[in-house]
């Protein structure tokens, strides 16, 4: 077993101590972007309810229409802040959860096998002859190391397990985020507008936010089209502001539709943005042809895993062997 060098908490502490302004600057930028996004929503929607006489009349005659629209508006903002405050799934948290589960099992084994305490103690101090490693709280991580060995193909270099930045022992599909300064499970990307990473723990929430935002933009665009088509005399500055806001809305809609379609493709093929873009930099994906999706289990299973397995920190996928990939390809071809 290789030496792991300095522990992850010491690396992070050192980086934080030498560059405290970097993290404060990141928080400030994130706060500014959140306020800006909130203002964009309020200004674009508020303009219609202030100056669109047709919408104002419709609100009085058919209040349910406006109520549904405002409910979608509120739900979108709630989903935004909910996703922004969610955890993407940190590797260190998964390590702690896995080791706690393993130690709980060992504790039960101790109480039920009092006649053989030395055997249990031996399994704690060493597993399969491998030396144990301790994390910040002093908890043994032998169970975590064994789990990682089961996830990577035999013969994989242990260097690919260890993060070069925080020295964390990470499973496949995990990656270190420079903005969060942590390793993220099933890392997708760091969203500057949300101020957090998108990973295994919040990718589904992120998709729902993008979906709600896209629907809201389409509905708002329809309201602006009705605003311009209405034969009503207005001040010149009202038309000017409406044109500017419509242009901003159109750009946002194009951007959101692109993201929504792109992430639908990623979900159906069980990929991440990082894996798709940086595939040649990932050792266990480098030799696989680009048209193959090694982690894909079929559209239905991919959708199920994406929607139902995201909250489990211990739900980690092993790297499929070449035989597994050929078997999946054969099944897909036959079907």
From TrEMBL:
It catalyses: L-cysteinyl-[protein] + hexadecanoyl-CoA = S-hexadecanoyl-L-cysteinyl-[protein] + CoA. One of its GO terms (biological process) is protein targeting to membrane. It is a multi-pass membrane protein. The keyword Lipoprotein applies. Residues 161-278 form the Palmitoyltransferase DHHC domain. The chain crosses the membrane at residues 31-51, 63-82, 206-228, 240-268. GO terms for cellular component: endoplasmic reticulum; Golgi apparatus. It is found in: Endomembrane system. This is S-acyltransferase. It comes from Acorus gramineus. The lineage of its organism: Eukaryota, Viridiplantae, Streptophyta, Embryophyta, Tracheophyta.
């Amino acid at each position: 077993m290789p030496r792991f060098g300095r522990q992850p908490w010491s690396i992070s502490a050192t980086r934080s101590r030498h560059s405290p302004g970097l993290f404060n600057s990141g928080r400030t930028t994130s706060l500014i972007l959140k306020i800006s996004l909130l203002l964009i929503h309020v200004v674009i929607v508020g303009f219609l309810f202030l100056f669109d006489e047709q919408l104002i009349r419709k609100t009085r005659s058919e209040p349910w229409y406006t109520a549904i629209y405002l409910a979608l508006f509120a739900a979108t903002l709630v989903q935004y802040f909910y996703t922004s405050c969610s955890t993407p799934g940190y590797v260190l948290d998964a390590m702690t959860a896995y080791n706690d589960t393993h130690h709980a099992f060992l504790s039960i084994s101790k109480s039920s096998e009092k006649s053989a305490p030395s055997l249990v103690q031996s399994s704690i101090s060493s597993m399969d002859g491998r030396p144990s490693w301790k994390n910040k709280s002093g908890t043994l991580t032998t169970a975590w190391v064994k789990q990682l060995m089961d996830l990577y193909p035999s013969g994989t270099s242990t260097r690919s397990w260890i993060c070069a930045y925080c020295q964390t022992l990470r499973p496949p599909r995990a990656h270190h985020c420079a903005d969060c300064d942590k390793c993220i499970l099933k890392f997708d990307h760091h969203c500057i507008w949300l101020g957090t990473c998108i990973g295994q723990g919040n990718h589904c929430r992120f998709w729902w936010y993008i979906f709600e935002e896209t629907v809201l933009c389409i509905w708002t665009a329809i309201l602006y089209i009705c605003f311009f088509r209405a034969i009503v005399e207005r001040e010149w500055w009202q038309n000017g502001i409406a044109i500017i806001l419509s242009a901003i809305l159109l750009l946002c809609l194009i951007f959101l539709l692109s993201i929504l379609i792109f992430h639908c493709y990623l979900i159906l093929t069980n990929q991440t943005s990082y894996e798709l873009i940086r595939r040649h930099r990932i050792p266990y994906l480098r030799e696989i042809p680009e048209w193959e999706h090694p982690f894909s289990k079929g559209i239905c299973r991919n959708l199920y895993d994406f929607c139902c397995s995201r909250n489990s920190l211990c739900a980690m996928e092993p790297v499929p062997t070449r035989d597994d990939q050929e078997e999946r390809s054969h099944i897909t071809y036959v079907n």
